[in-house]
């Protein structure tokens, strides 16, 4: 049941003074070494799961207010992903945190070598508005799992979800361990004054550069989960019914406000008309003839985003859709045909339910076009295995799906992240644990035997040279 509280439209910014106090208290708490205890981390992961389940209805209500997300979509794309991530870490953490023995080369004889996994320290997690719950809490799972303290900074553009998360964090965690601060640019600037051990940022490439520059002042580690124009190739041998349905879903979930949504379509010219007709049919099958009345179609997050997106629509190019309503920030799923690479909509990530379509005659042309642009966060290919392998071999992207869209984000056993302009570093599952950890190599030498080969004046240099090759 969706609760009916008053919608929040703005947030009170956390002061720089308070941020400083939080940072100081977290540094001191981390210095107690309590978070390094695996039993403590497991306990905190269980508490986080309890918190999410306790606040579940309030989370759904907040997401409905911020983005008009249905309960079903909110569960599938936000809550369930966090719960699954917690469960995966609970299952694997003891093994991940255990020191790993590694072999030692002969030159180190007699000794043993191992890798220790240490928490980096106090982390800063800055999350966006498009999946405001999942993209804030999922990195937090990695921070807890590795033994870090965490300051969370959600987006001010999803204030209802941010307020619910703030209440949840305050109720279940002490601020010296995990704290959530509110605000926009000024809050970010205040946060950047402090030497966090790691900054985990999800958002645009433009802001990612600002974050990286700020992190450089303190030599803080950064993980940047950014975006880009993720291409979707549909070849002539693709299963068009499945391709249409999966592209329509991947493009319209959360009203296209997904960092890995298919940004534009590259379709073989021999099947374009048939594919576009099937995409329209798929949209009607999912949302009905009157999509504005659907309970499962989200809305654009802000007036500014709405104006930007509607400004991209050119009536002469609209194959399907194009309807919009400023009052409710509704934009219908829209297909733009006969798009040119020079068109405005092809210059930046769309981040909305608008799908530009371009044709190709040969797959090599599609590959060349992708490679002429920045490396995307995701790449999608619909077609046979042989060509799919060729596309993967000749392109680069953060992740990819063959004959589907979006699904690579749901596998906790795979890394998720960008490359180049679409990001650096990755997370999910074990990679989240590693993202917030320092791998510390340790060699333990014997005190019973001390080989003189390593000491000057190197009388046995010939022997040393043979050993070292």
Automatic annotation (TrEMBL):
Keywords: NAD, Oxidoreductase. The active site is at residues 225, 259. GO terms for biological process: aldehyde metabolic process. GO terms for cellular component: cytoplasm. Residues 5-438 form the Aldehyde dehydrogenase domain. One of its GO terms (molecular function) is aldehyde dehydrogenase (NAD+) activity. CDD domains: ALDH_YwdH-P39616 (cd07136). InterPro entries: Ald_DH/histidinol_DH, Ald_DH_C, Ald_DH_CS_GLU, Ald_DH_N, Aldehyde_DH_dom, Aldehyde_DH_NAD(P). It comes from the Bacteria. Transmembrane segments: none annotated. Belongs to the aldehyde dehydrogenase family. This is Aldehyde dehydrogenase. It comes from Salegentibacter flavus.
């Amino acid at each position: 049941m969706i609760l009916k509280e008053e919608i929040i439209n703005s947030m009170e910014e956390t002061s720089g003074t308070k941020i400083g106090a939080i940072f100081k208290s977290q540094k001191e708490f981390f210095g107690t070494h309590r978070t390094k205890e695996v039993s403590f981390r497991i306990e905190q992961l269980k508490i986080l799961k309890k918190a999410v389940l306790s606040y579940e209805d309030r989370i759904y209500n907040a997401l409905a207010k911020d983005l008009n997300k249905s309960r079903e979509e909110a569960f599938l794309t936000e809550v369930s992903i966090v719960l699954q991530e917690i469960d995966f870490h609970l299952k694997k953490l003891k093994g991940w945190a255990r020191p790993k023995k590694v072999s030692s080369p002969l030159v180190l004889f007699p000794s043993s070598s191992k890798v220790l996994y240490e928490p980096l320290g106090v982390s800063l997690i800055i999350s966006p508005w498009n999946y405001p719950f999942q993209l804030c809490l999922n990195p937090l799972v990695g921070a807890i799992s590795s033994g870090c303290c965490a300051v969370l900074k959600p987006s001010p553009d999803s204030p209802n979800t941010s307020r619910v998360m703030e209440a949840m964090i305050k109720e279940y965690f002490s601020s010296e361990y995990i704290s959530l601060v509110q605000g926009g640019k000024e809050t970010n600037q205040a946060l950047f004054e402090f030497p966090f051990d790691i900054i985990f940022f999800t958002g645009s490439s433009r802001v990612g550069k600002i974050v990286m520059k700020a992190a450089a002042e303190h030599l803080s580690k950064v993980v940047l989960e950014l975006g880009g124009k993720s291409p979707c190739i549909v070849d002539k041998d693709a299963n068009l019914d499945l391709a249409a349905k999966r592209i329509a879903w991947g493009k319209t979930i959360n009203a296209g406000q997904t960092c890995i949504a298919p940004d534009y379509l590259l379709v073989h010219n021999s099947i374009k008309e048939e594919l576009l007709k099937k995409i329209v049919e798929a949209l009607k099958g999912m949302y009905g003839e009157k999509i504005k009345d659907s309970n499962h179609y989200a809305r654009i997050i802000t007036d500014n985003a709405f104006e930007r997106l509607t400004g991209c629509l050119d009536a002469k190019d609209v194959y399907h859709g194009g309807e919009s309503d400023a009052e409710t920030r509704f934009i219908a799923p829209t297909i733009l045909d006969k798009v040119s690479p020079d068109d405005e909509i092809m210059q930046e990530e769309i981040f909305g339910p608008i799908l530009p379509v371009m044709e190709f005659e040969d797959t090599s042309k599609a590959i060349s076009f992708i490679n002429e642009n920045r490396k995307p966060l995701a790449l999608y290919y619909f077609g046979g295995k042989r060509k799919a392998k060729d596309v993967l071999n000749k392109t680069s992207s953060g992740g990819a799906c063959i004959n589907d869209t979006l699904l690579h984000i749901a596998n906790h056993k795979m890394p998720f992240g960008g490359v180049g302009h679409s990001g650096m570093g990755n997370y999910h599952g074990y990679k989240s644990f590693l993202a917030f950890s320092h791998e510390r190599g340790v060699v333990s030498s014997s005190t019973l035997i001390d080989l003189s080969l390593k000491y000057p004046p190197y009388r046995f240099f010939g022997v040393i040279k043979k050993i070292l090759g």
